[in-house]
Amino acid sequence: PPTHPGVRLSLVLASRRGGFQRLSFIRRFAGVTRMLSPYYGLYLVLGLVFRVTEAVIGLLKLDLVARALEAKFGNFIIGLNDSRPKEDAPTDSVSKTELDHLAKMVTFWWNKNGPAKMLHTFYQVRVPLVVEGLAETGRISKADISKPDSLKGVRILEAGCGGGVLAEDLARLGAYVVGVDPGTEMIDLAKRHLETDSADLKDRLEYHAITVEEHA
């Protein structure tokens, strides 16, 4: 039987298989807690504290993944362009150092079990965040978030698309995506993957080897 929201306390136990295992230990005492109505407020506060704590832990995990990706693949991937070397960028958003670094990864970029495995894992988290963000801004209906074509009719420009991992994921949800990247090796890779592995997305996904300034 359902219990009061305030008594759904949970303990965050040790991580197993990369996820948190929660143990609800109040439900069996629901009948007792209903009789302790003077303490309902306390249960409500404690329940809220546990939920906030879990949310913070989740955000910290996402931040750690992002930092690991930055260290592995360069800040170009996750949009932290402010930290690029000073000698690289007095006029535009292009970092020669990062382009050279990413060009070396063409051979394994789409290997989900290779050196880029963390990149693909990160995008599994990032795509739902993009969808939820568009819903919050009113670009899509919140009722459509869980639909397989939740981004249908949405036009997206991905600046710094690399080999097209995120671009394909967004297009697969129905969006029309334009990916731009100054790295010709990466754009060639993205086009090849689209042609050979994701041909069903060709009508709503295109790539251009240009900077975002040139596209604008």
Automatic annotation (TrEMBL):
Keyword presence, Chloroplast: no
Sequence ranges assigned to domain Methyltransferase in this UniProt record: 156-199
Residues of the signal peptide: none
The species this protein was found in: Culex pipiens
Keyword entries, A-Z: Methyltransferase, S-adenosyl-L-methionine, Transferase, Ubiquinone
Pfam families in the record: Methyltransf_25
GO molecular function annotation: polyprenyldihydroxybenzoate methyltransferase activity
Gene Ontology CC annotation, any one: mitochondrion
Protein name from the UniProt record: Ubiquinone biosynthesis O-methyltransferase
GO biological process, one term: methylation
